[in-house]
UniProtKB/TrEMBL annotation:
Pfam families: PrsW-protease. Keywords: Hydrolase, Membrane, Metalloprotease, Protease, Transmembrane, Transmembrane helix. It comes from Streptomyces spinosisporus. The chain crosses the membrane at residues 23-42, 48-70, 82-102, 147-170, 214-232, 244-261. This is PrsW family intramembrane metalloprotease. PANTHER family: PROTEASE PRSW. GO terms for molecular function: metallopeptidase activity.
Length: 282
């Protein structure tokens, strides 16, 4: 009986630590800042704070998810900070430009079956900057590949969410924009970062073994998998307003995406002791 009690206490204590973790504090702080900027806008009509409100709202969840993944895997230390920053700024920007261009070329009506093409376009667009880095031969380890993919997907996700927030702000006001961004943030762990992270984990697993970039079954299969998950996610979300039952399918795709990402990167999980901050020597 005593052992069971101890086990329950430890389990409860572990769950309560959720509120103490850096990634959660980051998400909460950035979300509060986004809301604060919106309040300033509403009370003063000072539109200078609108970009900050959109940025904090769009970046809160993706950044928190990246931090949580780094805590589990330590992947961000496998690539120089300058490279990660470059992938965030330029990889994310280039992938959004490519995705935006080809989305417009192939998708004329977002409420038509054409929406199912989005995943195939955007997952390829996000992967191309990572592929370009891999072709240099400097970063072929799985941990490095996932870090590069996460940085690119983070930039893509933040910029894309800011565009949705801007559209909502222009049509319905800053309050609607923040509602849109916070709502999107709740799905980020099951979206762009998870899909790109999974694809990179599958591709770089093969490339690390071979020591070079090659066209492999892991790459092709991984791309088709994440593209289908992405397209299913967008399609179900688009038609969910017409048939609420489809929301259950959307949730199923979201959970599946996250579980597959965790399975695909479980080899990167650090030992429990190593994952915790170590005290500095006296």
């Amino acid at each position: 009986m005593a052992k069971r009690t101890v086990g329950k206490r430890r389990g409860l204590g572990y769950r309560l630590q959720f509120f103490k973790r850096p990634w959660f504090r980051t998400w909460l702080s950035m979300t509060v800042l986004a809301v604060l900027m919106s309040v300033v806008m509403l009370t003063t009509d000072n539109e200078a704070v609108v970009p900050a409100a959109l940025f904090y709202g769009a970046a809160a969840a993706p950044l928190a998810f990246a931090m949580a993944t780094h805590t589990r895997t330590g992947f961000a230390t496998s690539v120089p900070p300058s490279v990660l920053l470059g992938m965030f700024l330029f990889g994310g920007g280039i992938s959004l430009a490519l995705g935006g261009f080809f989305d417009a070329e192939f998708i004329r009506d977002l409420n038509s079956p054409e929406i199912l093409v989005v995943g195939f376009i955007e997952e390829l667009a996000k992967f191309l900057p990572v592929l370009a880095m891999a072709l240099t031969g400097r970063y072929l380890a799985v941990r490095s590949g996932v870090a590069l993919g996460f940085a690119t997907a983070l930039g893509f996700a933040v910029l894309e969410s800011m565009s949705y927030g801007l559209q909502a702000a222009l049509s319905d006001g800053i309050t609607a924009a923040e509602g849109t961004l916070i709502g999107r943030g709740l799905t980020e762990p099951f979206g762009h970062l998870a899909w790109t992270g999974l694809l990179c984990a599958l591709a770089f697993t093969s490339w690390q073994k071979r020591g070079k970039v090659t066209l492999t079954a892991g790459l092709v299969g991984g791309y088709l998998l994440v593209a289908l998950l992405h397209s299913a996610n967008d399609g179900l979300l688009t038609y969910e307003s017409e048939n609420p039952v489809l929301f259950l399918g959307y949730l199923a795709v979201a959970v599946t995406s996250y579980v597959l990402f965790r399975l695909g990167t479980r080899s990167l999980t650090l030992p429990t002791a190593a994952a915790q901050p170590q005290p500095r020597p006296a």
